[in-house]
Amino acid sequence: MRRTFGRPRSMLVLRAVLSSLLLLLACPVQAHEVTPTIGDLTVTQDVLTLDLRMNVEAFVAGIDLDGMVDTDESAKSDQYDALRAMSPNVLGPRVRSFAEQWIAQLGVDADGPVALSVAAIVIPEVGDPELPRASHLVLIGHVPETAQTLTLHWPDGAGDLVLRQQGVEEAYTGYIEGGASSPAISLAGGASTSGWQTFLSYVPVGFDHILPKGLDHILFVLGLFFLSTHLRPLVWQISAFTLAHTVTLALGALGWVRVPPDIVEPLIAASITYVAVENIVADGLNRWRPVVIFGFGLLHGLGFASVLGEFGLPPGQFLPALIGFNVGVEIGQLTVIAIAFLAVGVWFRNKPWYRALIAIPASTVIALIGAYWFVERIT
What is the pLDDT of residues 209-226, one digit of tens each? Predict the structure, then answer.
């Protein structure tokens, strides 16, 4: 007997694989996302001060942060979580013991090695266990009066460092990976990067926030992708989303618009659920969808702005940094769409069973993930 709808075994396997992939993306719902260390460098007369705003629990736990997206991926995540639950009075001595040994790996050279010591440790009280504490480790050292430049080596396994020179004109701001060193930084200032260099340095920061770190943004973009097999609906949606998040990203980065993350993040999760559910109940682009996507794009832009705020924008290079970050975000989103198109679109989008066996099941999984995240973020 001939099948009129056609459900070959391979299609059932494809559904299972696609659903499993989306579920894997959703696994880190209790995500402990790795954030970069922010280092403010000041040299006053002959005293160097390096104020490191960092996730000290990850360092004390001995987690290798180089290339890591989420601390749950580490075999030492249980130890890390235990440290996060400690009060400042209990954690402080452990941080000091760690820091006094670790600073030997943090090399500073200014006409010779600069010996560093721990000047202060500031650890906030335990807050939301799902968010890393931004503790401060303040280091000081003596710089020879004859020194004109300074080079900092960031240790292997320490993840990324955003180094910001303070107290001088045209201050240096740079992005340094674990195991890498800064260029020679003029102590008198004038080491600021050009607009083009700043633009290029912030593109990977924006891309990295989508792939691999932006799981919620990835699912939202996939929700746009699965609406229709035609290019025009996707172009309309991406255009509305891009325009909207560019506006709020700029306004948020300028500090003109501020919405607390505990409001933005649940609404982002709700936006994921909405677009996925609409994919299930509608078989094409209606005239209101781009307007709704624009509204959701405003929310996602606020989320991007909070990330950019973690890095800070170099003085005098605000616009190149902002544009570079936004370009990186766009490249990341287009990469997600390209991967989805190459994985399923190019092979199956013209099949009569594409919507029933791929688009709807995938959208169902995305909707469930978004709903779970919404509940998790408001509780």
Answer: 788 778 888 999 999 888
Q: What are phi and psi of 362, to 5 degrees?
A: -65, -45
DSSP assignment letter at 38: E
Contact at 8 Å (CB) between 169 and 151? no
Tokens of 317: 């290079």
Phi, psi values for residue 84, rounded to 5°: -65, -25
Residue type, 233: P
The answer to whether 106 touches 153, Cβ cutoff 8 Å, is yes
Q: Which of 251, 238, 267 is nearest to 305 (CA)?
A: 251
For residues 243 and 258, what is the distance between their CA atoms, to the nearest angstrom?
Answer: 19
Pairwise CA distance, residues 300 & 294, whole Å? 10
In angstroms, the CA 144 to CA 55 distance is 31
Amino acid at 193: T
Q: Which of 285, 274, 275 is nearest to 233 (CA)?
A: 285
User: What is the chain's Cα-based Rg?
Assistant: 24
Confidence of residue 47 (pLDDT cuts 50, 70, 90): very high
CA–CA dist 208, 311 (Å, integer): 13
Phi-psi region of 118 (alpha: psi -120 to 50; beta: other; left: phi over 0): beta
Q: What is the pTM of this model?
A: 0.65
pLDDT for res 315: 60
Determine the Cα–Cα distance for residues 379 and 369; give it in Å rounded to an integer: 16
| 373 has a pLDDT exceeding 50 | yes
Helix H, strand E, coil C: the string for 115-162 is: CEEEEEEECCCCCCCCCCCCEEEEEEEECCCCCCEEEEECCCCCCCEE
Per-residue pLDDT tens for 169-220? Answer: 878 888 888 999 998 998 887 655 667 877 887 888 888 878 877 888 899 9
